[in-house]
Amino acid sequence: MNLISSSCLLLLRSFSRNIHRRNIYPLISRLYTEGSSQTTVELSKDQLQKLRDQEQRFKRRLHSVHRKFAVVPENSEFQGRHHVYFEDGKGIYRSTLGHDDQEMLEVCNADWGGDGYGTIQRVRLSPSETMLAVTVKKDHHEETRCVLVHLGGLILRQKAPLVLDNVLSFEWATDDVLYYSTQETLRCLCVFRLHLSNSEVKTTLVYEEKDPEFFVEVSRSRDQRLVTINCCSKISSEVWFVDSKTPLLFPTLIQSRQPGLLYHVEHSDNCLFILANTGANQEYQLLRAPLASPSMPHWVPLFSAVPGTVIKDMELLQDHCVFTVKDSQCRVQIQTLSTKEPRQFNTHQLPHWACDLSPQRVGTVDRGSFGFLLSSPVHPPVRYLFSSREQKLSVTEDNTKHISLTEFNTTRLQATSQDGTMVPLTLLHMPALSELHKAPLLLHVYGAYGVDLSMAFSPEKRMLLEDGWALAYCHVRGGGERGLAWHQAGSVLQKRRGVEDLASCIQTLHHLGVSRPALTALTARSAGAVLAGALCNHNPLLLKAVILQAPFLDVLGTMQDPSLPLTIEERGEWGDPLMREHRDNIASYCPCHNIIPQLYPSTLITAYSEDRRVPLSGVMKYVQRLKKAIQVCTTRDGVNKRVARVPVVILDLQPGGDHFGPEDLNLSLNESARQLAFLYTELGLDHQKTRRRQKERSNNLTGKSHRPRN
């Protein structure tokens, strides 16, 4: 079960860039650096050449780093009743269970989606493993198609694959009945039932959403009994279900939508297990109801989170609920509850370095166990398994010992925000905290939609850590790290709180002796750029450089244009500018509308020419205004470029419309190399000297036994 509301999936999804994916597309990029005055933010030819040379060095090193981590566990393997499957982004292969030496046979290829469709996104096996459904994404765009492959019989692909257009989510009810939602102009409003038979393929519309603020997706209970249709807005939800025992009947409503009510459902033994925000402070708690009487009057409370923790996710096993929770410092924990004896409750401590928990993708589910991957931005994933029968948590596969750091620190801090709120802050570093005053610092922020800041493993972040960087993750209000109330405290009229939280995090780190403004950089993507841009307008001297990817920068202009695909749905996050109070509030922090003549941090912006989530016009407007403001400042104040470096503004404009960046590994590494070259150049770091210093430090630690410290 995923507690991120379905509407959030429009703006954030997780994806892996696999080393095994082929390089299909040549790099097409250009640096947008228009301007004419000598005092503008234009880069000279020498500066551009130096930046490109630096980029090539980083690209070579990034390829080496990714090869090093190519063998770490990931959610690319899943199991059916009779076979084990492996997905590498371009194809799906299988071999018979128990025959590890058997050659893997291809059962699906992304090319089957048609010309221009090249990357596998989502995979579902039918209950008896006779059918396979796979979505493939269009290259450089977000359009997806669903390919249905027949697996039965002795000869694979004995029936031609069936292709469905614009499918986003889908689940099998039986081997011959598939439910799926379609996406048009970034919005999901309709659910269809596909009935396969020997004589015909019949498609039936079973649900159509009328409210433009809602988003619809299809999911399935872990015991495979129910297919659910989940309708979510920013402030309420509604769930319908189809019983796989009667897959051709129309869906049944569980509880009609109510303002402020959010809920998600699972099923076991003819009972619904419901996570709803009916607990203290409107946080999630677990309730139970009979399948025959599913509405709210029949919901019986079973469990509420321990004070100081919030429920982030739940897996329902045969006789246990497994909760993923976070405490006040954003430490991840596993808590288990017996569904037979709800008083039997246990907390299982995870390694102190753990920052991200990713449930394993499974085909045929073992309802007695829960597998997941633990990682951090600098620690490769480790595979864990919780067994409800043994009440035991264990490492099932650890291929990371030979690539684990000899020493690194995960330090949990809290910053006091302007209104006194304590804001969690995670700091990753190799030297001791007291030795970080000369270390370069890279900050990360998101703070929107109730979504947690991504802290999954990244080879690029691991490389920076080994180069002596400190990496800080600011869990500001507006995100989901501290629960639903944490999100509400940083949305709509409270959106400025996230900016205040971010400033407090940076100031706290500098006060503790972690780096200094001249060595501090900030990175954010998508909606996280709102906080980053607002911070630069109000506190530009806290930072030296900023990296923004697919940034949302013109909040006011975008939210005033209802013709854009996400504007109406997004009002629950940013507010409705048709209301005077909301409009004035958005105008007070909108990055694009608060630029003033001053020395800003140097900025690298990566944008995509056909991005429909973040209109390019808003990015261009921001870049032009930012360049003009810096030009006015440097001209007016007569900045001596020999003494003070004039900030640069670079727009790296890429082709295509994939808001989430390139799936192809080489294109992804090209982007990362440009960003690293920019950081090192603007912070005045010597890449080669930094590497030598870290090698010397590693040599000094050779022979010593260290474990990561909290």
From TrEMBL:
<feature type="domain" description="Peptidase S9A N-terminal">
    <location>
        <begin position="169"/>
        <end position="342"/>
    </location>
</feature>
<dbReference type="GO" id="GO:0006508">
    <property type="term" value="P:proteolysis"/>
</dbReference>
<dbReference type="InterPro" id="IPR023302">
    <property type="entry name" value="Pept_S9A_N"/>
</dbReference>
<dbReference type="InterPro" id="IPR001375">
    <property type="entry name" value="Peptidase_S9_cat"/>
</dbReference>
<keyword id="KW-0645">Protease</keyword>
<protein>
    <recommendedName>
        <fullName>Prolyl endopeptidase</fullName>
        <ecNumber>3.4.21.-</ecNumber>
    </recommendedName>
</protein>
<comment type="function">
    <text>Serine peptidase whose precise substrate specificity remains unclear. Does not cleave peptides after a arginine or lysine residue. Regulates trans-Golgi network morphology and sorting by regulating the membrane binding of the AP-1 complex. May play a role in the regulation of synaptic vesicle exocytosis.</text>
</comment>
<dbReference type="GO" id="GO:0005794">
    <property type="term" value="C:Golgi apparatus"/>
</dbReference>
<dbReference type="GO" id="GO:0004252">
    <property type="term" value="F:serine-type endopeptidase activity"/>
</dbReference>
<dbReference type="Pfam" id="PF02897">
    <property type="entry name" value="Peptidase_S9_N"/>
</dbReference>
<feature type="domain" description="Peptidase S9 prolyl oligopeptidase catalytic">
    <location>
        <begin position="457"/>
        <end position="681"/>
    </location>
</feature>
<feature type="coiled-coil region">
    <location>
        <begin position="41"/>
        <end position="68"/>
    </location>
</feature>
<keyword id="KW-0720">Serine protease</keyword>
<dbReference type="InterPro" id="IPR002470">
    <property type="entry name" value="Peptidase_S9A"/>
</dbReference>
<feature type="region of interest" description="Disordered">
    <location>
        <begin position="688"/>
        <end position="710"/>
    </location>
</feature>
<dbReference type="InterPro" id="IPR051543">
    <property type="entry name" value="Serine_Peptidase_S9A"/>
</dbReference>
<keyword id="KW-0378">Hydrolase</keyword>
<comment type="similarity">
    <text>Belongs to the peptidase S9A family.</text>
</comment>
<dbReference type="Pfam" id="PF00326">
    <property type="entry name" value="Peptidase_S9"/>
</dbReference>
<dbReference type="GO" id="GO:0005856">
    <property type="term" value="C:cytoskeleton"/>
</dbReference>
<dbReference type="InterPro" id="IPR029058">
    <property type="entry name" value="AB_hydrolase_fold"/>
</dbReference>
<keyword id="KW-0175">Coiled coil</keyword>
